[in-house]
Amino acid sequence: MATNVVRFLLLVLLSLLVGTMFGIWVGYNPISLSVSAYVEQQQSAIRAFNTLLPAMGAFCIILTAVLAFRAHLDPRVRYLHVAAAICMVIAALVTRFGNQPINAVVMTWSPQMTPANWTQLRDLWWQWHVVRSIAGIGALALTFLAVLASKRVPA
């Protein structure tokens, strides 16, 4: 029973997290935005997501580690969880060392005062976002495979 609760929590949280990444990837490509629209949109997203999503990601990594540990009798499921956790860690590292430093810079801008290289920073942020989205989708797919492959484990 406890394992099923952890699986359920992980699937819900990871789905919300990766769904947000995917939604941004598909619906918010900033390439055609004016500088003022970009700054306003990005600052709004940073305020909304910069703490919440990394916290959700960390919790998902912990839940995945718990499930990998609990699957010690089923190597196939354990390895799927480990692979999912690796994808989540990649997404977390990309966020921390790729996206968040750019976020910190963007938060200092105003729509009227942006650096000359703002499009380079915008494009670099986008590239990192695509990498983290792919890692997140991989983590979600591997997690679903692990859950579907799991035998019923007693609590």
Task: Note the main attributes of this structure.
single chain; 155 residues; 5 helices; elongated
Counted up, domains total: 1
Rg over C-alpha atoms, rounded to the nearest angstrom? 18 Å
Question: Tell me about the biggest sheet?
Answer: none
Which percent range fits the helix content?
over 70%
What's the tally of helices? 5
- The percent range for strand residues is under 5%
Please tell me what the overall shape is.
Answer: elongated
Low-confidence stretches: none
| SSE pattern, N- to C-terminal | HHHHH
Number of strands: 0
Which secondary-structure class do the elements indicate? mainly alpha
Q: Could you report the average pLDDT, rounded to the nearest whole number?
A: 94
In angstroms, what separates the terminal alpha carbons?
5 Å
Question: What's the gist of this structure?
Answer:
The protein is an all-alpha fold and 155 residues long. The protein has five helices and no strands.
Describe the 3D structure.
This protein has 155 residues and is mainly α. It has helices spanning 2-27, 35-49, 52-70, 75-106, 118-149. The protein has one domain (2-149). Helix 1 (2-27) crosses helix 3. The model has no long low-confidence stretch (mean pLDDT 94).
Topology record:
Elements: H1 2-27, H2 35-49, H3 52-70, H4 75-106, H5 118-149
Helix pairs in contact: 1-3, 1-5, 3-4, 4-5
